[in-house]
Amino acid sequence: MVHTKKDRGSLQEARDQGTKVPNFFGKSERARQYEFYGLISTHFASIPQHTSEGSIFVVWFGTTPRLTISDPALIRQILVEKSEFFEKNESPALVRELEGDGLLSLKGEKWAHHRKIIQPMFHTENLKLMVPIMGKSMEEATEKWSEEMGLTSGGKMEVEVSDWYKKLVEEVIARATFGGSYQDGRPIFELQAQQMVHATQAYHQVFIPGYRLLPTKKNINSRRLEKEVRKSLVNLIDGRMRNKDTAFHKDLLGLMINATTTTTDDPELEITVNDIVQECKTIFFAGKHTTIQLLTWTTVLLAAHPQWQELARHEVLTVCGSRDIPTEDHLPKLKLLSMILNESLRLYPPAVAMIRRAKGDIRLGGGLHVLRGTELLIPILAVHHDPALWGGDAHEFNPMRFAKGVAHAAKHPMAFLPFGLGTRRCIGQNLAILQAKLAIAIILRRFSFELADDYSHSPSVLMLLHPQHGAPMLFRKLN
What we know:
Elements lengths: L2 E2 L6 H5 L13 H12 L1 H5 L9 E6 L2 E6 L2 H10 L4 E3 L4 H7 L8 H11 L5 H26 L6 E5 H18 L3 H22 L13 H26 L9 H8 L13 H32 L1 H15 L14 H13 L6 E5 L3 E3 L3 E3 L4 E4 L1 H5 L2 H4 L38 H18 E5 L7 E4 L1 E4 L4 E6 L2
Parallel strand pairs: 1-2, 3-9
Antiparallel strand pairs: 2-3, 4-6, 5-13, 6-9, 7-8, 10-13, 11-12
Main location: membrane
Cofactor: heme
Membrane topology: Single-pass membrane protein
């Protein structure tokens, strides 16, 4: 049976409810998480609490009905077993300008062609080669942070960690995208940050055909930013293409430029400068913000649970010994840290939901007949917090649930999907995990940290799940 629920409040109203809770982490984890749900969206909050109604029901997005499916068996059919019958929904135009018409939004043969070209960038061997470079950048950053904070042994300093991680991740993503030209790519991040403000507003507003063509102040500014981003990227691409004597490494720019020289029988699959621009924008946006939120929420959780912070620190010191920077051989041995990162992704997935549209009439398990054009909403956040899947402690921070691996962490192997599932699983997930593990390990060696008194727990959706009021921490330099 499919049930219908009314969305009892707008997302904007939910976001605006964030209030300071001085003793927030003194409350039980369960109470804390139910408050957390209320701050995100009422229909996400209600999904795990209505299992008696079934795991399938309709929610309304304005005048558009969306079939919400939180049953992992059905999710596997949609994203894996019968994925060819579904496609991604169209994002608002301003969102597409920000994230690019790259792997996030492409469909069909063109998507498959682009993914095949870009895939080598994320191969394990290529990522291993990036570890020393990433480690050196992160070590330099932590040394600079220590100097800027003026920390002495036993001293404390308040730090906004999301700002820290923003600078850290930007450099890594710029290197992965542009290789030796990464310094020239940095200004693009600032332009994208301005674009994100406009895109976020569009993401949460009802679509009005033709509105973005009106000469409003916001629309004029959006078009200016888009032109500046494109111009900056085209200049970088042209400079790289002119430098024919330099061998192209396995960074995004090199892989895409090499693909422009490859002939294909289908003109639609030929790689153009515009294709390269769009993929650079996609990697810049998705790669940067996903990793920043993973690092931020993991730090919040470790600050709120000092016993786990100490256990993770002990593992880093035991595995890495006297080395300040973990090597590519050390990282796979940091098992507890991997479990902590997975638990962070479970409690605070970067994307709270994903939407697919049926390309034709299709039958799913349980006698569910989905008509062509139907939108299906998969509420990642709700699935990750469902006690029926994760047990009575579903709302608690418990990394040990991943002790036997992701496949055995829940009652269904498809209940954990922070990066999606199937062929459209996030191509950069290994890079994000690698960056996060390396950064947290380096920070644990150098600092202990706790939540600042003015920390206000208010998870909010700004395209991705982030702390609405930031994540201020008190850091102490370790001997």
